[in-house]
């Protein structure tokens, strides 16, 4: 029986309205600013949302735009964004960002190849910026999207890049802009990598749970 993707995503969408909005999505909604969306996405890698939000707030208070960011030194940026994951590397990337963007007229480019040429920007970051900042059809595959799509058996892939390519071939285009936001919120709140809340999951009865380990206590207590 084919996986009921439309039904599942509809139930997931209803569930995540009760959960916190992922921090980069929240910044996108609040600012509609490609600069802030790009910087927040860089900060968010390997970092919890609460830490990212606090660091982004401190940084944007000092550097609300690219011109202001260019006036900050690497050590100052590192102090502002600490303790995000790999904060020293991220500070180095952000210090180099204004000069790198000079090649694009000092603007955030809306092209995948151009975005991945920027310091600290990989495919995941570039695709998220394309989707959130420019509304362009792009599939951003982070660890949640990769994990959950494999858990559902919708793809059978080894890496996030493999997942992105598989989803480009199979995922209906109407879901491309929203799949990351849905599955990040769902993965943080319900379908967690450690201690998944299967008993609270709205799709528990149809989920294949491929590779999921639920503790015996949680399994016994699940309704």
Task: Fill in the CATH topology of the largest domain.
Answer: Endonuclease III, domain 1
Q: Uncertain regions: pLDDT < 50 for 5+ in a row?
A: 216-223
Number of helices: 13
CATH homology-level superfamily of the largest domain: Hypothetical protein, domain 2
Rg calculated over all Cα atoms: 18 Å
The second-level CATH architecture of the largest domain is Orthogonal Bundle
Q: Proportion of β residues? A: under 5%
What does the secondary structure layout of this molecule look like, with pairings?
Blueprint (H helix, E strand, L loop, with lengths): L4 H12 L6 H9 L2 H11 L4 H14 L3 H4 L4 H8 L5 H15 L10 H5 L6 H12 L8 H9 L8 H11 L8 H11 L26 H6 L2
Helix pairs in contact: 1-12, 2-3, 3-4, 3-9, 6-7
What does this entry look like structurally?
Helix 2 runs antiparallel to helix 3. Helices cover 57% and strands 0% of the residues. The protein is mainly alpha-helical. It has helices spanning 5-16, 23-31, 34-44, 49-62, 66-69, 74-81, 87-101, 112-116, 123-134, 143-151, 160-170, 179-189, 216-221. The protein folds into two domains: 5-20 and 139-221, Helix-hairpin-Helix base-excision DNA repair enzymes (C-terminal) (Endonuclease Iii, domain 2, Orthogonal Bundle), CATH 1.10.1670; 23-134, Endonuclease III, domain 1, CATH 1.10.340. It starts with a helix and ends with a helix. The protein has 13 helices and no strands.
């Amino acid at each position: 029986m084919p996986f009921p993707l439309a039904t599942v995503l509809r139930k997931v969408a209803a569930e995540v309205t009760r959960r916190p909005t992922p921090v980069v999505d929240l910044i996108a909604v609040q600012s509609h600013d490609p600069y802030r969306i790009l910087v927040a996405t860089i900060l968010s890698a390997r970092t919890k949302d609460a830490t990212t939000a606090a660091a982004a707030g401190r940084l944007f208070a000092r550097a609300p735009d690219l011109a202001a960011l260019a006036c900050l030194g690497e050590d100052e940026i590192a102090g502002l964004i600490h303790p995000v994951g790999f904060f020293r590397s991220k500070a180095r990337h952000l210090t180099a960002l204004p000069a790198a963007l000079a090649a694009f007229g000092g603007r955030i480019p809306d092209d995948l190849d151009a975005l991945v040429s920027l310091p600290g920007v990989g495919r995941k970051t570039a695709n998220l910026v394309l989707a959130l900042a420019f509304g362009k059809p792009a599939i951003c595959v982070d660890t949640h999207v990769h994990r959950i799509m494999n858990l559902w058996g919708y793809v059978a892939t080894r890496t996030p890049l493999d997942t992105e390519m598989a989803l480009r071939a199979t995922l209906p285009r109407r879901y491309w802009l929203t799949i990351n936001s849905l599955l990040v919120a769902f993965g943080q709140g319900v379908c967690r990598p450690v201690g998944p809340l299967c008993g609270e999951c709205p799709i528990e009865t149809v989920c294949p749970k491929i590779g999921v380990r639920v503790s015996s206590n949680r399994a016994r207590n699940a309704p």
